[in-house]
Specification:
Distance between the termini: 16 Å
Number of helices: 9
Helix content: 25-40%
Number of strands: 16
């Protein structure tokens, strides 16, 4: 009975999160990936019969921490709002036995934001002072929490479509960022910003890249929408493009797929990924052109953060 895996539900994860440094874990993860101590297969989408929805499988294995596993993230069609959950199973490389089953709903938000923050730390100008955050929900707030100490920010502009009319949400922003400025549009928020973080669930562009500063860093994340892209695909032809993992991201990221199909861009144009940047084997961006960083979410990120939470749970026993 002592060898049975533990179950870490959402409430338990919430209690344990303050005890872990997610950004540090993501940094170590990508160092391990850059040193060939981890493997990241492509994510797969499985369609459920009878149009019942789908589920995405994120796999990953790390010999440096002796764990492997998978996150399953279903999108289940109902008569009303679809059901979206995420659970990660973590297993031991040493014994082949399961270690835990972890609710990854909030962990997905945390590792997504921490991965974007790592990109900011590795790619943004050291003297960047203005940051724009497009989006205002939990994911956007997590992005700010992870980047707030990375640069000497003098101005923080936030924009989302309904934020001006959502007093409760804006009050939450003022609580975590008292100097935040509510922008009138995404373009206004991004204008002259050294870093622009796109943190939405939109499947179509939320920002006109013509509004960007000449050497701005733009970060973008994924959503469940097919071929989702928060910025126009043709932006990639003029930007210095980086991603979380060059082996798998170009075939999944919507704007990369569309830029390849419609604008003559190719995966060979990627300057580097987080694994390469983390071990110094990738070229750094120059100041002549904007920088685009795209994250699609890796199984390794889910395995790493689930392992961190698992270790924190074991430490409390």
């Amino acid at each position: 009975m002592n060898n049975l895996p533990i179950i870490l539900d959402a409430a338990t994860v919430d209690k344990l999160l303050p005890n872990v440094d997610v950004l540090a874990e993501m940094r170590e993860l990508f160092i391990g990936l850059g040193r060939d101590q981890a493997v990241q297969p492509p994510q797969t989408v499985t369609l459920l019969p009878e149009d019942k929805g789908d589920f995405i499988t994120y796999l990953g294995a790390m010999t440096n921490t002796n764990v492997f596993g998978a996150k399953l993230s279903p999108y289940l069609v109902t008569g009303g709002k679809p059901i979206i959950t995420a659970w990660t199973v973590l297993m031991s490389v040493e014994t082949g036995q399961p270690l835990c089953l972890c609710d990854s709903g909030k962990l997905t938000t945390e590792r997504t934001a921490a991965t974007s923050a790592l990109a900011v730390d590795l790619l943004a100008r050291k003297d960047a002072q203005h940051i724009a955050i497009i989006g205002s929900g939990a994911v956007a707030k997590a992005h700010w929490r992870y980047v707030q100490a990375l640069r000497p920010w003098q101005e923080v502009r936030v924009y989302s479509q309904n934020l001006a009319n959502d007093k409760e949400n804006w009050a939450q922003w003022q609580a975590i960022c008292p100097n935040a400025i509510l922008a009138g549009s995404a373009d206004d928020a991004a204008r002259d910003a050294g870093v622009v973080m796109l943190c939405t669930s939109s499947g179509t562009p939320v920002l006109d890249h013509a509004a960007l500063a000449p050497n701005a860093l733009v970060t973008s994340i994924s959503t469940n929408v097919a071929q989702a892209h928060e910025i126009a695909p043709d932006f990639l032809t003029s930007a210095q493009v980086y991603c979380d993992y060059r082996v798998t991201t170009p075939s999944t990221a919507g704007e990369m797929v569309l830029a390849t199909r419609d604008h003559g861009w190719s995966a060979a144009d990627i300057h580097g990924d987080l694994a390469e940047l983390s071990v110094g084997s990738s070229e750094s961006p120059d100041a002549s052109r904007p920088i685009f960083f795209r994250s699609v979410g890796l199984g390794l990120e889910d395995i790493a953060i689930a392992n961190t939470i698992y270790r924190a749970a074991c430490a409390q026993k």
